[in-house]
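Handoff note, outgoing to incoming analyst
You'll be picking up this chain. Sequence as last confirmed:
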Amino acid sequence: MGLEASGLAAFARRKEDAARSARFERFETLLDNSAAFPLETIGCPLTDALMDGPFFQSSPPAAARPVISAVFVQSVGGNTGVDDPSALGGGMTDKHLIYEGLSRVSADAVMAGANTIRDGSVVFSVWHPTLVELRHAFDKPRHPVQIVVTSTGDLAIANGLLFNEASLDVVILTTDRGAATLAEDVRARPWITVISSGDEPDLQVYAERLFGLGIVRVSAVGGPTLVTGLIDAGLVTDLYLTTSPIEGGRPGTPVYEGTRPPPRDLVVRKRSSEGIAFEHFLVRGR
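Most recent structure output, in case you need it:
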């Protein structure tokens, strides 16, 4: 099933139309420490104007593993748990130019947990035409590799859009148990690669195997359990956090759910006239 024979083309048109017609909020820079860190910049006239400057990202580490960023929107109360992230009130600039844009423009892959994937009806990519062009300028394929993390293999392989497009490369990170559960469905879908870490999930093993596949930059979009594991494993370098001015989300669902919050350095802080805040942190390994 290729792009023309299935639902990805229609899905992409809807996403592109929504991004093209969105009303964007402009951000003002309140604090900029970017000169203190060795960072790469991403941007174009549209994004530089709306974000009041370039978007920053860490360079890939010397170690043989990908550089992983985490991208979240939270309510003013610090909650992230919600079926539709846009309901948290992060605004159109966050949705179309940060979450589905700048944080993915140069990414080789987007990573999400099974709860975020749900029924597989989503595809994580870049949709605004200007940012699609910017992605091409980085010599990247139209869509990033879709990475799904699941310990059990309980995924809607048979029906999910994400799993049934031969034009999408999909990597499932799982355990031996999960790989066995997935084996029959994956056998008929050669565009899906399954990586097992053995009896238990091992994020370090996954990172090494992804690097071996040529995946150097990953954008992790959730959920909090997955990102907490990545942070505790010392694999997250950048945290992009948008905070809305409204209450929302399921109570007790912070970005980081662990007991050992890592040290982090603030790169930039920005705020829109609507009261939406954007912060970029560098997460320092322990």
